[in-house]
């Protein structure tokens, strides 16, 4: 099981880099070319959500993206360090950030069949996975 881990400051300009790295590693892992656009969009949405949570709550921590190649699946985890009380800080910011979060999660679940939203040690974690096509070796 090979894992590539990317950590970046919670700034919107780093989301594009995370998307590009995720697509490159997914392609190498054997994820079908036909779903790479959806994978890029889902990673971008998950990372943008994590960045927004950090910024709304004044958290300086890093966003973590783990890309894991398993035997039959390619797993991506996007974790934030916004803590469990992210809704309280978001409400103080005006507007309705929970609607933005719900919309982002709806986009992700529309793009990815196997998605799980949960809590990590320091904040939220979005786990997404795609099937991989075994690479055939020519003899």
Topology:
Blueprint: E1 2-9, H1 15-29, H2 36-57, E2 62-69, E3 73-79, H3 86-91, H4 97-111, E4 114-119, E5 124-131
Antiparallel strand pairs: 1-2, 2-3, 3-5, 4-5
Protein name: ATP-binding protein
EC number: 2.7.13.3
Domain Histidine kinase/HSP90-like ATPase: 8-130
What can be said about this structure in brief?
With 139 residues, the protein is an alpha+beta fold. 42% of the residues lie in helices and 27% in strands.
Question: What would your notes on this structure say?
Answer:
It is a single chain. The protein has one domain: Histidine kinase-like ATPase, C-terminal domain (Heat Shock Protein 90), CATH 3.30.565.10. Strand 4 and strand 5 form a beta hairpin. It is 42% helix and 27% strand.
């Amino acid at each position: 099981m090979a894992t590539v881990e990317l950590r970046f400051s919670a700034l919107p300009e780093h989301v594009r880099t995370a998307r590009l790295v995720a697509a490159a590693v997914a392609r190498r892992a054997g994820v079908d070319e036909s779903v790479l656009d959806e994978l890029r969009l889902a990673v971008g949405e998950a990372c943008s959500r994590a960045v927004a949570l950090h910024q709304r709550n004044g958290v300086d921590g890093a966003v973590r993206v783990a890309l894991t190649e398993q035997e039959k699946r390619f797993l991506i985890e996007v974790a934030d360090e916004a803590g469990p009380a992210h809704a309280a800080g978001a409400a103080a910011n005006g507007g309705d950030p929970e609607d933005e979060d719900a919309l982002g999660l709806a986009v992700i679940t529309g793009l990815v069949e196997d998605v799980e939203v949960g809590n990590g040690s320091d904040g939220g974690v979005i786990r997404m996975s795609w099937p991989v096509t075994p690479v055939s070796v020519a003899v």
